[in-house]
């Protein structure tokens, strides 16, 4: 029984940290303004607890991103159309990209911090590889499409966090207009491959 208390404390601390980080990213103008010290203070935990649980700032960002992305991930893996696996590929690809765009619009600062943070190529980040792999697999089911890997990269470039931030923040493009523009772009890409029948 004594062993359970640290696990409950760790789980409670983790939830408190994620909630604190979530609130801080929502309030601050720039993602760089949120430090590990800020998060620890807001969560009421020591910095050591924070670093033990998440490793570093990038680890905290990934954990927060994954927690927010969980409902989308579940819909993609086992949900009904248009996101779920039973959806025809020409319908699923636009729905997947729309889901990514909406997620990034709803989580602009977090998505920007995650994509800009860390070292190395953003294309090697776990979340990017997961989306690219999923899109590539769906695109492979589109008849006549010859390079699903490149096409997946090109489509994901349209929903990069820095582009979403530029369009929403600097150009003030409304959400629904951006979604419609993305849908038109994806439809155009998919139209370049012949339909069956």
UniProtKB/TrEMBL annotation:
Organism of this sequence: Streptomyces plicatus
Keywords attached to this Swiss-Prot or TrEMBL record, sorted alphabetically, are: DNA-binding
What protein name applies here? TetR/AcrR family transcriptional regulator
Question: At which residues is the DNA-binding region annotated?
Answer: 35-54
Taking every annotated instance into account, which residue ranges of this chain make up the domain HTH tetR-type? 11-72
Q: Which InterPro entries match?
A: Homeodomain-like_sf, HTH-type_TetR-like_transc_reg, HTH_TetR, Tet_transcr_reg_TetR-rel_C_sf
